Amino acid sequence: MDNTTNLMSEQFRPTLDEFRALARGPANLIPVTREFAADLETPVSVYLKLMDEPGASFLLESVEGGEQVGRYSFVGVNPRGTITLRGRVVERSAGGQGGRGAGALPVSPAPLLPRSPASYELPDGEDILHVLKTEMEQFHYAAAAGLPRFAGGAVGYLGYDVVRFFERLPQTAAPGPDVPDAVFLLADTLVVFDHARHRLILLANASIDGTGGDVEAAYVDALQRIDRLAEKLLRPLPAVPARRWGATSGNGNGLESNMSRDRYEAIVREAKEHIAAGDIFQVVLSQRFSRRTSAHPFAVYRALRMLNPSPYMFYFNFAPLDMQVIGASPEMHVRLEDGVASVRPIAGTRRRGTDPAEDAALAAELLADPKERAEHVMLVDLGRNDVGRISEYGSVAVRDLMTIERYSHVMHIVSQVEGRIRPGLDAYDLMRATFPAGTVSGAPKVRAMEIIEALEGQRRGLYAGAVGYFSYDGSMDTCIAIRTMVMQGDSVSVQAGAGIVADSEPAAEYQESVNKASALLVAVARAEAGTL
């Protein structure tokens, strides 16, 4: 059976009669799906077939524990709208910020924040999470059995400096990179890989309100969006891009930092003085590296996913901003599923062994290292405090305390902290309670952030923020924005840091931050050389 037959043999779910029955209830947003066998496609091939769509798009993948492919991968194109935050100014646009070309996929007719202006300043007491919550709460979602973990919602990132809405911090650092503080795509049309079932799910959320209450029109619109997706997926694989569109510049040989080696080592010494004075126990200090490249951003992502398979791999093309966000983060920031909040701190690292015996010996050495254990326990306690702020009394527990998680090149000590959130609270409250992660700020968290503000000298931008989604069904899954690159024009930048404790050596911490950044930029070099 060829791929065309596979596609045409599958039926839409729900049927029109089932859809009408759902529409008679409180739901005004109903997912419509169509499945077929996924043995002839990969997430990368699907994205390549859809990447010529105008506007923004994304690809989310996962390798759990660094070794097993996660159950789902998600491709999203032609979002219903985009919400961008710069400082206190919110910008809203319909669609994916791009024009509509011939043959472009149709966009969901669901409304975008009715009664709100296209650009406005947040009033006192509100933040970007209020905006997202207002957007999402227009909809009563008809969750159905068998839907993937994510079936639509707001997908994007919160930059580190969004924390200024949640905590009072000094305003001493200079402006950072010219990157929005937050960007979220409102995704209503998805291609979902279910790797466990080897199925490809085409999903379109049907908005009853978007068609003026015409139930059948909403259903037909969803079918048409799915059919257009299917048509595009039946095309031959297009040429794989190696160079950025119209790029003529050469590749940069040098790596530039926003601070000198002497300056970085000096701020490490200053941080140690704060630790000795009892201000903090630990603080993460970072620097930002950049260089020029003519590599195509998606070629960089393909290289990164092969070099560094991770639990959270993502590619965002914010096309009209001429900005791509590319990452392979090992660490969950926070997740909410079925009312249970989870954080998963990672601290403590060793290289992988050359054989199973050496690998086991290195793992035992890591778990026995008193410095690594002390730092990890401190971050677990910070995670317990964060989750405890919004959890039911007595529900916070540590799962999998100090286990070894192996990745392609390194192993880490990881733990998982869980708690059941209190009635009346939601994913947005959970994000406020936990943002940013202690593993990229320090402990105590607020004092560590004050010291970061004073010592780093520039705003962090996306680095150390959160990347992921808020779903229509109330769930959330986000990772920490580390091992993440931002590409703008012919420039690529990456920020990396090191955790400073009482016995840190400034030269060693500087080199750790350089090594982390350099490991990511290997993917850029491979993309430039075409050695994928």
Automatic annotation (TrEMBL):
<keyword id="KW-0460">Magnesium</keyword>
<comment type="similarity">
    <text>Belongs to the anthranilate synthase component I family.</text>
</comment>
<keyword id="KW-0479">Metal-binding</keyword>
<dbReference type="GO" id="GO:0004049">
    <property type="term" value="F:anthranilate synthase activity"/>
</dbReference>
<dbReference type="InterPro" id="IPR005256">
    <property type="entry name" value="Anth_synth_I_PabB"/>
</dbReference>
<feature type="domain" description="Chorismate-utilising enzyme C-terminal">
    <location>
        <begin position="261"/>
        <end position="516"/>
    </location>
</feature>
<feature type="domain" description="Anthranilate synthase component I N-terminal">
    <location>
        <begin position="39"/>
        <end position="202"/>
    </location>
</feature>
<dbReference type="GO" id="GO:0000162">
    <property type="term" value="P:L-tryptophan biosynthetic process"/>
</dbReference>
<dbReference type="InterPro" id="IPR015890">
    <property type="entry name" value="Chorismate_C"/>
</dbReference>
<dbReference type="GO" id="GO:0046872">
    <property type="term" value="F:metal ion binding"/>
</dbReference>
<comment type="pathway">
    <text>Amino-acid biosynthesis; L-tryptophan biosynthesis; L-tryptophan from chorismate: step 1/5.</text>
</comment>
<keyword id="KW-0028">Amino-acid biosynthesis</keyword>
<dbReference type="InterPro" id="IPR006805">
    <property type="entry name" value="Anth_synth_I_N"/>
</dbReference>
<dbReference type="InterPro" id="IPR019999">
    <property type="entry name" value="Anth_synth_I-like"/>
</dbReference>
<keyword id="KW-0822">Tryptophan biosynthesis</keyword>
<comment type="subunit">
    <text>Heterotetramer consisting of two non-identical subunits: a beta subunit (TrpG) and a large alpha subunit (TrpE).</text>
</comment>
<keyword id="KW-0456">Lyase</keyword>
<dbReference type="Pfam" id="PF04715">
    <property type="entry name" value="Anth_synt_I_N"/>
</dbReference>
<comment type="function">
    <text>Part of a heterotetrameric complex that catalyzes the two-step biosynthesis of anthranilate, an intermediate in the biosynthesis of L-tryptophan. In the first step, the glutamine-binding beta subunit (TrpG) of anthranilate synthase (AS) provides the glutamine amidotransferase activity which generates ammonia as a substrate that, along with chorismate, is used in the second step, catalyzed by the large alpha subunit of AS (TrpE) to produce anthranilate. In the absence of TrpG, TrpE can synthesize anthranilate directly from chorismate and high concentrations of ammonia.</text>
</comment>
<dbReference type="Pfam" id="PF00425">
    <property type="entry name" value="Chorismate_bind"/>
</dbReference>
<protein>
    <recommendedName>
        <fullName>Anthranilate synthase component 1</fullName>
        <ecNumber>4.1.3.27</ecNumber>
    </recommendedName>
</protein>
<keyword id="KW-0057">Aromatic amino acid biosynthesis</keyword>
<dbReference type="InterPro" id="IPR005801">
    <property type="entry name" value="ADC_synthase"/>
</dbReference>
